[in-house]
Amino acid sequence: MVSTSIFPDIQKHIPVMGDMNLKSPIAYKATRAMASVVNATQMALAEAYIHGLEVPDSVFRAAIDTSLPVLFKHCPGLLAPYEWVLQETDRIAESSRELMQVQYDRPQAMLNQMLGDWKVIYPKYSTGFWENGATNLEESQMHMLDQVIERLGIEDGDNILDFGCGWGCVPNYILSKFPNVRFTGLNLSHEQCEYMRRKMQDPDSYLSSGRFTLHEGDLNEAHFDEKFDKILSIGVFCHVGNLTNAFQKLASFLKADGKVLIHIITVRMPNHMSSGFTHKYIFPHGRYWNHDAIPNHNCDLKTVQRWYMNGINYHKTLTDWLQRFDASQELVKSLDYGMDYAKFRRIWRFYLLLLGTIFATCDGEYNGNGQYLMVHA
User: Fold this and answer.
1) What is the pLDDT of residues 259-272, one digit of tens each?
2) Predicted confidence (pLDDT) per residue in 57-90, tens digit
3) Which structural domains are found in the chain, ordered by start?
4) Please, are residues 356 and 67 in contact by the beta-carbon 8 Å criterion?
5) 168 near 208, Cβ under 8 Å?
């Protein structure tokens, strides 16, 4: 990780290196200009790939493996292509409706094939945990959820809110482990909610137990009449633009002695990170918060413990998703993606290859997942 404590007076005048918030006006503007050039170059390569440029996966990965360590270690300011990446935005969730359209409301049959859809582990769009000996994607997702249960301290009888509950994988798995736990899921994606509503009518699903309540809506407008023992959020905070307002909202839902566990992609660099390609095609206004961002927002909620999950876990997960995605083409090529399927396929191959390689860069020590246990401040 780049140190900003060595020669701080010199570093504030040097573009690109170190913490952008400490830069002099001239160094800041120079870094922003260079970041725009890097972003334009990445976008040109991405667009060429999307429109048919043939690049072997091995060459693609080698190019990223060669360039990204330099950016992670020495030039982190170049990984923030837009001004909004570096600071909080006005709303809790930015571009949330657009995000549902381009990402989470894609054809369910395709997502089932890519992410996996099993008896207890439903499609889950976040990393598995492979370090405990998982031999396949399903096991890695179980191991990840077992870790969440332990770190959040879930007990039988808890009333839990899942902020951004996806397809209900987390509630379903935890309900299977605890016969008296109650869950409320909050989700803006209509297609994901429809998937869960079908499961709520399926006697083989734990979502049909009467202990699961679904709210289709946005955290910006969410209100609940009851308070919760535990709140968990897996992956969603990459789409949250304002940590201060989000923590205030979550704190209002939490009992006085309650606990919150937030699991997100983080970067162990001085600044936050994003990508012009993912912003345009995959996660509008998505960003990867600096690993210290959540502990630095000790207002309404405070961090009492945190963990870093090495990026190799997400590398293995994304690699598995890519293999499953490629293997399913004959089954899913006729579905409605709102665009020519060949273009859609190349967009998503670029996305899975790009992120899968980034997480493995520098042995997963710069870009991975952060988990934060929080209580009332």
Assistant:
1) 999 999 999 999 99
2) 999 999 999 999 999 999 999 999 988 888 887 7
3) 8-86 (no CATH), 96-376 (3.40.50.150)
4) no
5) no
